[in-house]
Write a structure and sequence with these properties.
Number of strands: 0
CATH topology: 2-methylcitrate dehydratase PrpD
Number of helices: 13
Mean pLDDT: 96
Distance between the termini: 28 Å
Low-confidence stretches: 293-298
Largest sheet: none
Structural class: mainly alpha
Helix content: 55-70%
């Protein structure tokens, strides 16, 4: 059993196995299931992600009307222009947006680690898929690697916006994706840890301030930039760039920041963007339209 990133990396290195394999073995022990059962479970999660991305890229709109259609706009822009950020990066962004637009439209997504942050992992995965051409097994392993890092965060900090702000949701999700991208690109376990740390460091202090209490604005676009952060940080780690602050210490810092963050900035819709004139106006419009209060959770 590992509880820290240091222990996760050590087990992979000492046994000469992948981070994904460490997680698979731990899942087998925890749930007392066969290897095939554990893999089949994750395969189903992968299918849910695939379907969500596909549906989002075909165009969806939320019931509130606050979000929808941006994934389509991004794909159209990619095909008809020359994106400044490059096709792979923007593809990750568009697929992260697609997933979260499906979530906002009350569709089925795979929480990674929450519904409100469900776009980062599939966004990164299905973008690098176009470049690395992984097998189905390698894509499933991507999710196990993501899950291994998410397991550490969940057991040492928090993964919900209500508990620790959006740094705990999209920050954790983006970092999980970055670590998995590194492993899929044949990086070392240590490089995956550095990618995770670099990603999360750059999202520390991110507040959770959903307009009208719905997981739409700014949540969908935060997943977009989270996926981009994941890809860039993975490249940095693969290039040999290291985080000066160890991964577990970054997670600890995120936890302490979340504890210090005021309640108004933790999914209550009482501060941040939710408290702007436009944010309040949108909430009032939705309230009047629905004839009652509106709320949501990540």
């Amino acid at each position: 059993m590992f509880r820290t990133v240091a222990e996760l990396v050590a087990q992979a290195e000492e046994n000469n196995i992948s981070l994904a394999e460490v997680m698979i073995q731990q899942e087998m022990d925890i749930y007392d299931l066969s290897r095939q059962d554990i893999i089949d479970r994750m395969d189903r999660n992968l299918t849910v992600m695939e379907e969500a991305v596909e549906r989002g890229l075909s165009g969806v709109e939320s019931h509130s009307g606050l979000t929808g259609g941006d994934a389509v706009l991004l794909q159209h822009y990619m095909k008809n222009s020359q994106p400044l950020s490059g096709p792979l990066l923007l593809d990750a962004v568009s697929k992260a947006v697609a997933t979260n637009e499906v979530n906002a439209a009350m569709g089925v997504v795979c929480a990674t680690p929450t519904a409100g942050s469900a776009g980062c992992v599939p966004g990164a995965l299905f973008a690098v898929k176009e470049k690395l051409n992984p097998t189905r097994e390698e894509m499933i392993n991507f999710l196990f690697t993501s899950g291994a890092f998410g397991f550490v965060v969940a057991n040492n900090a928090f993964i919900s916006g209500a508990a620790g702000g959006c740094q705990a949701e999209v920050g954790s999700a983006a970092a999980m994706a970055s670590a998995a991208v590194v492993e899929m690109a044949q990086g070392t376990p240590e490089q995956s840890a550095h990618a995770f740390a670099i990603t999360l460091k750059n999202m520390l202090g991110l507040v959770c301030d959903p307009v009208a209490g719905l997981v739409e604005v700014p949540c969908v676009k935060r997943n977009a930039t989270g996926a981009a952060n994941a890809i860039v940080s993975a490249d940095m780690a693969l290039a040999g760039v290291k985080s000066k602050i160890p991964c577990d210490e970054v997670i600890g810092a995120m936890y302490r920041i979340g504890k210090q963050m005021p309640t108004a900035l933790k999914e209550t819709a009482e501060g941040g963007l939710a408290a702007t004139p436009t944010g309040k106006a949108l909430a009032a419009q939705l309230f009047n339209k629905q004839g009652g209060s509106v709320s949501g959770e990540g």
